Amino acid sequence: MNRYCQLLLGTVFAALALGWGSAPVVAPAKAKPTTTIKMVTYGQMTKHNTHRLAAVREAARQAILQTTKAKSSRVPAVYQVKLPTHMTKKAGLAKQGLRMPLLKNSFKLTHVTVPYSALTGKIVNQYLPKANRTQKVNTKKMVALTFDDGPDKTLTPRLLKTLKKAHVHATFFEVGQSVKRYPKIARAVLANGNELANHSWNHPNFGSIGTKKTAQQVMRTNQAIYQATKTLPQYVRPPYGSITAAEGRKIQQPIIRWSVDSRDWAYLNAQADIKEVMKDTRGGDIILMHDVHKQSVAAVPTIIKRLKAKGYKLVTVSELLNNQALPGLQYFGAHDSRIVGK
């Protein structure tokens, strides 16, 4: 081998030794940090309270419908999804909400994440972000206006204008067949910051029709309200306040009664309505009125004005009960809850 070849080979070997001409050495990519989801039992998050666990199931049904963008025809199916009843089962505290594992179901979901905002007052505060925890409220100067039997084509919009002008929110217990007839008005109730709840399909006496028919009344109305608003109503008010213990267990929603009956349905007189409400109302009361009588709607501006003059703040049922109404219980006021049927 001549001198030239020896020099050429030496140069090649040196280049290989130094890594010249080879692929650049790339540092390994840093692995993305994994998010750890804390698992807690339903017993821990509800303090082993079966009513609280029923409320978690209620919130999960809403989340399932919203996650799958389900049509109203699927509302009955969501009540067939097997949701947790045992306190030893676990769910995860994820950033977006409570991540609940699901058994095989017709919605084809392996889990559902329930927003923490839907669990305020349902699970204990320590498992909620600070923004979603309940705070102590003073109900001595709080009352809730509630209206039954709507929506009415003319009177409910008129009442909504009155409430908006007075900067007051109320809770509307609506009849399913009227919601189906006037879905835009049902949506307007919510759009103005009020609450919308279930008052049966066509106003029968639950106590006299039996558990099966009562459940059908409630389900059909839940379906109508969901079709109109894309939300399930949280509360049920039985017509005439009549409901049995068996019906309360079957319905699986909080029952809202009242502590002040305006008797507007009997008087059909605005001045009599005003007098009755002002005579009986105290802090923490739930006031019963109807938005299907023109005299009742006409009485509302004066009732609001006089209650405010006495220092009362008019709020929704959820505000009055501090978001802590639970299935299986019936509520007559801020400090009066009982087992349904008792």
From TrEMBL:
Keyword check for Signal: yes
Taxonomic superkingdom: Bacteria
A GO term for molecular function: hydrolase activity, acting on glycosyl bonds
Ranges of residues in domain NodB homology: 141-315
PANTHER family listed in its UniProt record: CHITIN DEACETYLASE 1-RELATED, GLYCOSYL TRANSFERASE-RELATED
GO BP term, example: xylan catabolic process
UniProt protein name: Xylanase
Lineage summary: Bacteria, Bacillati, Bacillota, Bacilli, Lactobacillales
